[in-house]
Amino acid sequence: MHADSSSHPLLDPPTLEHGLPRFADIDDDVLREAFPEALRRHRDQIREIADNVEEPTWENTVEALEASGRELARCTAWLFNMLGTDSTESRQAIAGEIIPELSAHSDALYTDAALHARLGAVTAPDGDAEGARLHRHLLRRFARRGADLTPEAQRELASINERLSVLSDAFGNNLLADTRAHALHVADATKLDGLSPARINAARSAAEAEGRDGYLLTLELPTVQSALTDLTDPGTRAALHEASQRRGVGRNSSVLVEMVKLRARRAALLGYATHADYVIEEETAGTADAARGMLTDLAPAAAANATAEHKLLCELADAEVTSADWPYWEAKLKARDYELDEEELRRYFPLGRVLRDGAFFAANRLYGITVTERPDLDAYHPDADVWEVRDADGTSLGLLITDYFARPGKRGGAWMTSFTEQSRLLGTTPVVANVMSIVRPTDGSEPLLTLDEVTTVFHEFGHGLHGLLSDVRYPTFSGTNVPRDWVEFPSQLNENWAFDPAVIRNYARHVDTGEVIPGRLLTAISDARQFGQGFAAGEYLGAAVIDLAWHSLTPEQADALGDGADDVEAFETRALEEAGLMVEHLLPRYRSTYFNHVFAGGYSAGYYSYLWAEVLDADGFDGFIEQGAAGEDPAPAAVRAAGRRFRDLVLSRGGAEDFETSFAAFRGRPKDVAPLLARRGLTGAV
């Protein structure tokens, strides 16, 4: 289908398949032109609903509200996606201008007394269970956004929200700038010994792109950088590790402390003891105490396991192993004890095969869908590809954009995002994107992935499936529009298929010979994945504990905080000590000044959700095994039947069903923590 060049690419209804944006026709100037008009149109739509003289009905109130703001949604989807994948000073400036306007617009909507009254006056149609759930959800959202506050309190709330939006944007921009500024410059190639030729060439190219001689090791989002596994020079490892931890220290300390204070004050205005209580009320955990209890229950066992692992590494190194050295010596131990050579292993994981013959193949086995490349459709960057997803009966379900390569202006990490969401009310189908930051080989060869990168491809495609297989009426409940501690469940469960025997043998073929990965390596992968769980659990729990500690402060406690770098570090130390996670040389996965999830993303007081979702994932995947759908030589009919159940009960329902009910319906009972404890080596911890 061809675009209508006479229509506006943001203000008019989309003209490409599935509402794919006309990326070639959108730039910063187009957005600047469109945004004020899109905002005006949404204001007018809200006023038309709120001031309607007709009696409130479901159609003229709730469904009209659900259908409003499409133009604004297209503008913000384009801008915020571009800020993640291709940030520029111009786009940052645009965001700085419109984010406060968006915050004020949102506050005005949720404190509109006439609109709130109309919502309270209607009921969902008989038999519309999804509608009844939506009605409860909207009324609760209005209350949580200040609809019941006095006008004076509403004005204070709006001021807080506007300031928080500005600070969140500043945090992300500061982190992006520091990520580039603190990339490690190496003049001597011998200091990069251990890295693959492709990785060294990429470092040389990164330096050239910055107009520098030598080599540049760009920084990834977490504390631990993947290159630490391979670098043989302890000095280079230490310098890279230190560079990772310097991000945001000079600028983000004061930003994050101000955010913590404002979040605490906002929670108090709305009647909550802390920001954590406010956030987690809407999550499946239900209470901050439940989330906190899970972390504190598991922390002692994780710390003990990490301490034992560190001792083994020191014995192997015959020296003290620092936090910078830990990944290197862990890889050496796995090579010795499990005959697992990370560099050899990568030869079996070329990106294209992992994607097509791994992630897409597994989805076809489970859900009957096919994913086909669409070179006739353009994405937003030459590095990104567009794929069409079709159901077993040939129905076109939506589009997937894959954007896997690192580049200047792209923030680190990996994520899934949406340009268009599925809704039967709106007649829309999904356009979702999977984004990573893999270093592209400079010689044009295909990237060879680490085990972590293979897992991430499957993880993000799990989020993609959640969006692509959505089948709901109301856009509020579409796809990944669910609580944080539920949204990670489908994505984390999908990781399991990366190492399922039938799947991995289909995609893991040697890049040079085409040989299927041998059984000895599969055994080594399985055995080696059990080692290092103490480190993995400890660094994750450390970050989750820090997040909850910041956001469990009352306004009085928050106001007493200092905002210097030393103050922030001291706060982190106290939180880790209280949780029993002060393991020597084990650092949190994220320190506060570069904790993008909670200070520039949507995970404040919610980073615990990955572990909460892993309880569901571990137990849920056991359900696939019990149904004969995983493991050695499963029957195709059993795989498809289990996939159909998971699709029908979880993936397709988005937020339209009660989450505990959905899980219990799939599993046949409520969740059980035992499979997670066994996986993590934490049996006996709770």
From TrEMBL:
Record bears the keyword Transport: no
Cofactor binding mode and count: Binds 1 zinc ion.
MF terms in GO: carboxypeptidase activity; metal ion binding; metalloendopeptidase activity
InterPro entries xref list: M3A_DCP, MetalloPept_cat_dom_sf, Neurolysin/TOP_dom2, Pept_M3A_M3B, Pept_M3A_M3B_dom
Domain called Peptidase M3A/M3B catalytic: residue spans: 228-681
Keywords assigned: Hydrolase, Metal-binding, Metalloprotease, Protease, Zinc
GO BP: any one term: proteolysis
Keyword Membrane on entry: no
Source species, domain of life: Bacteria
Entry-linked SUPFAM superfamilies: Metalloproteases ('zincins'), catalytic domain
Gene Ontology cellular component list: cytosol
Cofactor requirement: Zn(2+)
Any Pfam family hit: Peptidase_M3
Family: Belongs to the peptidase M3 family.
Protein name: M3 family metallopeptidase
Organism: Corynebacterium antarcticum
